[in-house]
Structures are given as structure tokens and as C-alpha cells.
Design a protein that fits this description.
2 copies of one chain form a homodimer. Chain A is of the alpha/beta class. Chain A has 19 helices and 14 strands. In chain A, the strands form 4 sheets. Chain A has a 6-stranded parallel sheet, sandwiched between helices. A 3-stranded antiparallel sheet of chain A has the order 9-10-11, with helices on one face. In chain A, helix 1 crosses helix 8 (166-189), helix 6 (139-146) crosses helix 9 (199-205) and helix 8 (166-189) packs across helix 9.
């Protein structure tokens, strides 16, 4: 099968992941040209919808450009096939609970003996060490435990979930980077290695300011809603047409530009507003001054005036608005593929634009076992009879 | 200077970034052992606080383990020095607005001529192409524009900012991975390249389900607060001691475990709850059934019972709670360094645990220009007199 052409072309990845963190990481590898071979149970349980012509929409997006091979890892024969594939692989990724692969006889000791050059990427909720190592985790659990939810939402309201699966995404992105760094390392040392990345660690490390501030001041940062813990002005302001415009001035220079945009050069030297610390002290008054201006103009007018004065500003797009945005179109950030069952569908494209390679190409998500024959022939030279026997066994398994 | 020992040891990175997306990406490179040389203006403007003994807390965390070299890139002499450093570098990272480096005479054409093996990582708000390419952007602007805010918050409340700088973090993590992948590619091809990563693209691509659902159904996903667009049950439930426990069951098997935990095996076969689609239809009733149980137990009791039945559950930690968590301690996720001025301080550690390398070591954030002499001697063999002249010029610049 013709795989994509990119910085990871030629890379062979064995993908044993589920949910989002792992599949996202391997999706990025596939976008960059890797041959990602998704190993699936022949009796894959029916997942929850929504569906498009019976195909799960979630998978249509995150499993794109991968190949699907069915193996029943409870059977010795299938386990042997997996290990044969590992011999040809550069990377193995799994996100089972720690201990699961060991119990299947597929722990890192076994994998690395079969292929010492393989990068074994273990993604888990809490990592391979520490008191919680055997606990499972899902995105929202980690959003709550990590402190992220405690930072999200209005000061007077409840702690809120970030509206995307931020913990899964942080973890998947870290894993993508870690695998790439380990591959670079392997080119120098010739050695594969075990890499242990946890969702709790990843999310905690992505809370930026909040961690060091808590360590330094020994108290909880206040939840600030659409404000910022330290920058003023920073937030949403009402416009004449009942819209909202985001204005953020983290640096004095941006604030001075804002003063000019408002025709209020006097505020630049006003001791209540001149410096960041002053503005923090007089946040309410300053917010009112800015709102007076924004309430007198439409959202479009506000945006044009602020943009002309180089003031960081933006609008709160809905999903349909951003999906129709000309910048998203110009950057190929929505792409279309055709799936044999689901038909044509669109999804988000890759944000990684490599100068030495043509634009990323995309294949649809595979159907269950779509590439079993193809992959076993291509990588293992397995005779047709053996493949037929294997598939027969899988069918028998389904009948039980 | 002794640099860290890790998969990126020996790597030389020229860091021209500011704010968060770029500095986060280079912080990860430094954590993995790279020598990150932060190029700073001798007249660096005083940034906003909070401060620890006069040092900016934000920088203490995100600039850790880097070296600081002051150069005035408006002066030809200093620009020449930068280009000499580029000759010794593997990676150059910048997050100016597109066009800024070109205007300084330091565009990719110049950089790649000086060192064709360099990876030029350009991070920007909107990328190097498209109608918005010349616009600046900051985290919240992109959270608003990308659609992320429209997905965050209560259905009846306003669109909310994710409580960490999610757009900066998504972008920084993508950039880290892209640089590592480009380095791996360089080992194969011998060629450096230009990599263009935008905050809007990165954030949009991290909205997972929301993008493909919008493309398929042509309507905005509903904001769901602490629920999930498709999984039921999923959310926070009240406990007897006025706490809240998170319970999420994305798969039927997890829901059946929950039924057992509640002593309500009858719900497993109840046609209102048995399948994911049924539960979506009867969300309110099911929420009440679960709440009846959680309201009768304390948070600790709920957690213990759910954990014993393998039901994904968690609590909403505050920052002080998670910073004191034994798992965070066991994973070395809070680390301490000693800064010559700020003194000892703690911050989040690296979530990347590489089996072939010892635990990450950390250096404090550098003071402005702390390593100018050291780096210019080490990499360029610059004589002391020339360094003295350069530093004298910088002092004159400050006097103006």
C-alpha cells in the first residue's frame, strides 16, 4: 500500500492503543508518513456513536491513514505473529494499564529481546511507578485530578471540564514528541528503549503558571473564568450588537496600543493604568473604561479598530464559524477522504507543515481487519493458506 | 557547562522565542538534554509579575535549564555573531510574526545558506500562509477563534476559557514533536528544513470529535459543561460530605461495573440503560439514580467503592491538593532548583521518562545574559577582548 510521504516515511509502527491519547499520537505519526499498523481484536466490541453510515465518527477521524490487522492476542499463534511484526517495526505503542502487556507475555523484556531497536511507548493514566500505577484513567478523571478543572470556570461557579479532551491531547502530543526524540536518539546510539508517559504527569506539567505559583505561594490560584491570573486587561468585552470581543494585553506596549485605539492616550500615563501592577489594582475601573468603548461599536468595528492599532483581539467562534473560516481553508486544516462504507467525510487536517515535503495526504480510517492479509504478506511473507487458517480461527472465535 | 543527559544530549538549539508556546517547546528540548541557547535583547523590557525576589515566576519555570546570551539583533555585528552560532546549531526556533525574521535579514533563506542542516522551527499565530498570516495572536485569542471556548462551559452559561493556556501548550507540544521528527528525518536525509506550525491550526486540530462532528452534521456541537457530548454517565456527582466525584463510563463494560458498585445489577439489563444509546436517551433518570447513591456516601467512600469495582472515577483536586499528591511525588513531577537571586524554588518536572537515561536533571532559569561569555567562547572561540567590546556596546545601548 502506498503510504504517505513525509519526515517519518518508512517508519513501521505497531499500534495497540485505544481511546484517544494513544490513537492521537499514532495518527500524527501516520500523517507524517509512518506505516501505522493498528492491531485489533477480531471481536472488537461495538463502541458508542455517533455513527456515519454505521461507521463510528470518532474512529473515522482519529484512526485515519492507519492499517487494521486483526489478531487475537489470547492465542499463542497470533501472539507469535505479533512478535514477528515487532521484528520489522520501529515503534510499538500501547496504552493498556501497566502490567497488561506483561500478563499477555508481551512486556518490554519480551519485545526488546525480539527487537532491541524498537521504541516501546507505554502510555498510561499514572505511569509505571508510584502508588496509583495500576489504576485506570480517562480524560475527565485526569482533568479533575490534575487540577486543570479547578482552574477552569467562573470564580463563583463550579470547576469545569475543558471542552476538548485536553488530558488525552496533552498526553498524545507528548507521546508523539517522545517517540520522535527516541527515534532520533536511536539513530545516534543504535538502541531502542522503553518510554513511560502518563496522563496525570502530562496534564500536570501543562498547567504552566499554576504549578510554580502554587509551589511558591502555598495557596490555590483563584479560578478566573475568562480573565487571566495576572494580565489586565484580559477577557471578553460586550459589543453594541450583543457580541463579545476578546482583548488581551499582557505587555504594557499592547495596552498603550489599546489606549490609542480607544482614543484615550491619557490612560497611557494615568497612574492607575500605566504599569501592569497598577492595572491589576484597578481592574474594575479599567474594564468599565474599555467596555464603554466596545459597547459603542459592533463586533466587526471593534475588531477592525483594534487590529489597526495592533491590539491582540479576537472573536469567540462557534465550530461552524471556524470550520468556514478562510484561514482554516488556506491552511488545509479541513481535509476530505472517501471511506468505502461511510462515504466521503471531512475532518481536521495536520497542523505540521514540513518545508521539505509535499502537503500531508490522508487515507480513510480502516475497516476492522481490512489490511490483515496485505500486512502479513508484505512484512512476513505469510503464505495464503496460513492467512486463511488464521482468519478461520478468528471467525470461529466470533461464533463462540 | 554540564548539560543534561538525555535523548537530545549534544543538540544545540538557538531559541529566539517569547511568551509560552515557543519557550515551552524549547524547555522540553532542554529537559531532554539539549543545549538551549536563549538569545535575548540586552534591553529586555521588564515583564509583568508575579515575582520571586525580583525574578519573574513565569520565567523561572519555563526558561529553566536554558542558557541566556544577549545580542542586539539590530546591530550588524551581533547579527553576524548569531549567524556564527547558527553554524554550530541543530535547531533554530522563533515565534515572531511571519516576516519579522526576514526584515531583520535572518529569514530561512539566510539561515539555511549559513547552515543547510539546521531545522528552522517557525511558530506563529496563524502560520506563514493564508489571509491572517501577518496577524499576531495570543493564547486566549486562539482559544476563542479556534472554537475551543465555544465548547467549554455550562450549556446555559457563556463560552469559557480553558484554565490553562491550552492553545500555547498544544502548539508548544506539536512544535517539540515536529522538531524531533525533523531531526530524525535529518539523520536519514542529511537535510535541515523549515517547519511552519501555527497556534490556530494546532488548537483546531486538538478539538478532536468537535471538528468531524461539525463537518458531518453541519451544526454546532452543544456546549456540555461537565458532561460529555456522547458518553453517559459522564460528569460530577454530589457526595454526602458536600464533595463531588467524577464518574465516567464511555463503554458499556464500565457502566455495568458501576451498576454492580451501586448494588443495582438490575440496571444492567434495564432497557433504559443497557446500551450507550439508551443511556443518552435517559440521561436525567440515570443521573438521579447515580446521585442517590453518591449522596448517601462520602467522597472517600464513593471513591473506594467505585475503585473496587473498576469504575473510572476521580476527584476534583485543587492545585495545593495535587501538588501534595503521593503519585506526583513518586513520579518526580515536582522538582527543585536553586537560583542565584530567586533562591530555591519548586516547579513541575518533565513527564517524559526515557528508559535508557537517568531521571531528568534541572538547572534554574538563567539571568539575562548570564552565559554570553561562556557560550561565545565555547562555540565561537571568541577572544575576551571582542566579548568585552560586545558587552560594552550593550551597556551603551542601555544608556541611550
Amino acid at each position: 500500500m502506498a503510504k504517505g510521504y513525509g519526515p517519518l516515511s518508512g517508519l513501521v509502527v505497531i499500534d495497540l492503543t485505544q481511546f484517544l491519547s494513544g490513537p492521537l499520537a499514532t495518527m500524527i505519526l501516520a500523517d507524517l508518513g509512518a506505516d501505522v499498523i493498528k492491531i485489533e481484536r477480531p471481536d472488537r466490541p461495538k463502541a458508542s456513536g455517533p455513527f456515519l453510515n454505521g461507521e463510528r465518527i470518532y474512529d473515522l477521524s482519529v484512526q485515519r491513514s492507519k492499517r487494521s490487522v486483526t489478531l487475537n492476542l489470547k492465542m499463542e499463534e497470533d501472539k507469535k505473529i505479533l512478535l514477528e511484526l515487532v521484528k520489522k517495526a520501529d515503534v510499538l505503542v500501547e496504552n493498556f494499564k501497566p502490567g497488561t502487556m506483561e500478563r499477555m507475555g508481551l512486556g518490554y523484556d519480551v519485545i526488546s529481546k525480539v527487537n532491541p531497536r524498537v521504541i516501546y511507548m507505554a502510555i498510561s493514566g499514572f505511569g509505571y511507578t508510584g502508588p496509583y500505577r495500576e489504576r485506570g484513567a480517562l480524560d475527565m478523571i485526569i482533568q479533575g485530578m490534575s487540577g486543570l478543572m479547578s482552574l477552569t470556570g467562573d470564580p463563583d461557579g463550579p470547576a469545569m471540564r475543558c471542552g476538548t479532551s485536553a488530558s488525552d491531547v496533552f498526553t498524545g502530543l507528548y507521546a508523539f514528541g517522545a517517540m520522535s526524540a527516541a527515534l532520533y536518539d536511536r539513530e545516534k546510539t543504535g538502541k531502542g528503549q522503553f518510554v513511560d508517559v502518563a496522563m496525570l504527569d502530562s496534564t500536570f506539567s501543562c498547567l504552566e503558571n499554576a504549578v510554580i505559583n502554587t509551589c511558591v505561594f502555598h495557596k490555590n490560584p483563584q479560578r478566573v473564568g475568562n480573565s487571566h491570573p495576572t494580565s489586565v486587561p484580559f477577557g471578553t468585552f460586550p459589543t453594541a450588537d450583543d457580541g463579545e470581543i476578546i482583548i488581551t494585553c499582557s505587555r504594557d506596549a499592547a495596552f498603550y496600543n489599546l489606549c490609542r485605539a480607544l482614543g484615550r492616550e491619557d490612560m497611557i500615563t494615568d497612574p492607575r493604568y500605566s504599569k501592569a501592577e497598577d492595572r491589576r489594582q484597578h481592574k474594575a475601573e479599567l474594564t468599565e473604561e474599555i467596555s464603554k468603548f466596545t459597547r459603542a461599536h459592533t463586533l466587526d468595528e471593534c475588531a477592525a479598530i483594534l487590529e489597526a492599532h495592533d491590539v491582540p483581539n479576537g472573536r469567540i467562534n462557534t465550530m461552524t464559524m471556524i470550520c468556514d473560516d478562510p484561514q482554516i481553508a488556506a491552511r488545509d486544516m479541513i481535509v476530505e477522504v472517501e471511506h468505502p462504507v461511510a462515504g466521503k467525510y471531512k475532518m481536521a487536517g495536520s497542523p505540521l507543515k514540513f518545508g521539505n515535503y509535499p502537503a500531508t495526504t490522508y487515507e480513510p480510517a480502516p475497516m476492522l481487519g481490512q489490511h490483515t492479509q496485505e500486512v502479513l504478506k508484505e512484512y512476513l511473507g505469510m503464505p495464503q493458506e496460513e492467512i486463511d487458517e488464521l482468519l478461520e480461527e478468528h471467525k470461529n472465535m466470533l461464533k463462540k
